Amino acid sequence: MTAALPGFAGRTYLFEVDNGAAFRNAYSADGRRLRWEGLGESAGQWEDVSLHVAEVAPLVYFVSWTEKSGITVSHVMDLNALTVKVFWTWEGEGGRVGELHTGTLTPA
């Protein structure tokens, strides 16, 4: 038995975060990879990352990855409401720092 593809597989979204950050997130056809591209202040930044994915409710996904810089990102993507809860962490002065944000998804 094969697992169903996640609902975001093969799709691209504009992801706008409550702190003003914006990204173009393009997911691979199998839903196992993401190419994110920074927009606005983050323009020119991008990375292709491997994803860890679990469906936690119909069309609601926990998605996590680690970037080359050491930043970790975890999303709870609700494709029903086109919203995201995101938690990212990075190495800061005195140890690991984390931030929790909300955002919206717009199909691109």
TrEMBL record:
Superkingdom in the source lineage: Bacteria
Species this chain originates from: Kitasatospora terrestris
InterPro entries (UniProt xref): Calycin, MoaF-like
Residue ranges of every copy of the MoaF-like domain listed in the record: 9-92
Pfam families per UniProt: MoaF_like
Protein's name in the database: MoaF-like domain-containing protein
